[in-house]
Every structure is written in structure tokens, then in C-alpha cells.
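Quick one: structure for this chain?
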Amino acid sequence: MAATLASLMMTVLTQVPLEAAAADGDRNERLQFMRDKLAKFSLYRESAMEPLTLKEEPIVRFTNPERDSGTWDGATFLWLEGARPVAAVSLGIRRPANAVFREFTSFSDTPLVCQRGGAAAWSPRSGGLAARELPGAPLPAETASGRLTQMRNLARRFSATCYYKEDATQLRLMPQPLYRYSDEQEGLLDGGLFAMVVSNDPEMFVLLEALTATGDKAPTWRYSLARMSSLRHSVRLDDVEIWTIPAFYTIPPALRKDGPYLEAFEGNFKPAAEQPAVK
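Got it. Here's what it folds into:
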């Protein structure tokens, strides 16, 4: 009996790591699939020759099981200029047929050009609601930990609602920034990118930046807002509505590629195990 129990325990102990390893392998396969997709795109300032840097690691992996065609695996990446985020791109694999959709959003107040294979895939003229001074914000704290506390408090001043079919959903603010950075040469003392989410799927970004003093102007905080969803949204600051955005697919098709946000179909994901063997 003891030998049988010991044998059973050994079976359980060896199976669990193998199953976990298989799950990790599947997850890594999907991440590599997303990276391969994004490697085909290049993002530029409109007047620049050098492409911006795509951050290799995603700032978040997400799922959205709350919708009937929700994403069951997705990842969001950033394009950077130095350390500062200029745009974000998400790829999501959706039910029921593993349809893949990409989403672009701009944080820039100047034009960008995104190309794939030499053709323009997206040409936003500006970001959604970019580089606004944040009223009532305190002077940036002297320490990084103090500024993080300030950023978290400032982010809580924002709230947002998205509208899916007939349902209104209050977005949830993730309490920690998904990405934090500084670039004192560019006058950025500190910055943090926060997400308002359904499940853990970013629907709206809040970008907070502490600016260093310039001339007789004291250090200050500014914010930018960027949608990461095709749904209709309203955003509030201190419970006062400051931004409303229409559902993406109500925008005339001819205008979509020039807007601050773009969603597009990218085919279907097929796991390697389901693909035919190469002879």
C-alpha cells in the first residue's frame, strides 16, 4: 500500500511540472507569434528617417473573458523615443476562431507614420488628447518614491466609461503604472503610463509626466489620454467629462488611418501543433 501511494505521489509530482511547462510553451509560442507580426511594422516621426524603437517585452499580457468575442490572449507593446512612449500597439487573439486584431494608439502631439512593407499602415496626425497641463496638481516631489505616490493619486482623478452594445461599463484603474521612465535631457523628470481596463485589458491609457522647471516656470504635471479600444468612451477628470470618443467603426473608413487610434484584422492564429508538417 505504501509503495502504491509513493508511486501515485511521484506520478502527480512529475505530471504537474510537465503540464505547467506545456502551458508556458503555448504562452511563449503565442508571444513569439505576436512579436513576429509586429516585426513587420516600423514607426517614424513624419519628418524623421530613423524608426522609433519597439520595446521587445510587452508592458502587459491580458485577457478579456467578459465579452462574447473577447480576447483570450493579448499583449501590449510600446514604441519609444529614447525612454518616452510615443505610441502603443496591442495584438489580441479573440474567440471563437482565434481571430487576431491589432490596435494602434498615439501619445504624440505631432504626426507619425507607421509602415509595413513600404506601405503606410497608419498615419495619425496627433494623439487622442495629448500633453495637457493637469490642473490642481502639486509640485512634483523631490524623490522617485514620492512622485510615484503622486502619480497614483493623480491617476485616480480620472474615470472612464465604455459602451458595449447596450451596456455601459465603468473602467477599472490599474493601481501601478505599466511603464515608468524619465528623460531629464528632454525636461521630463518622471513619467508613468497607467491603464483603465476591463478585466486586465487596457481600454484607455493615462500618461502622466512631471516636467522640470524651465526659466521662471515651476515644475508641473501634464497628462495625455489615448484610447485602446474600438468602443465608444467618455472620460472624466474629477467627475467632469473632458473627452468623448465615438465608436471606431462609426468613423468613415477613409478617415480611420489618419486618426489617433486604429483597429485592424490580422488573420487567425494557428498553433504550431495544428499546422501541417513540412515535408
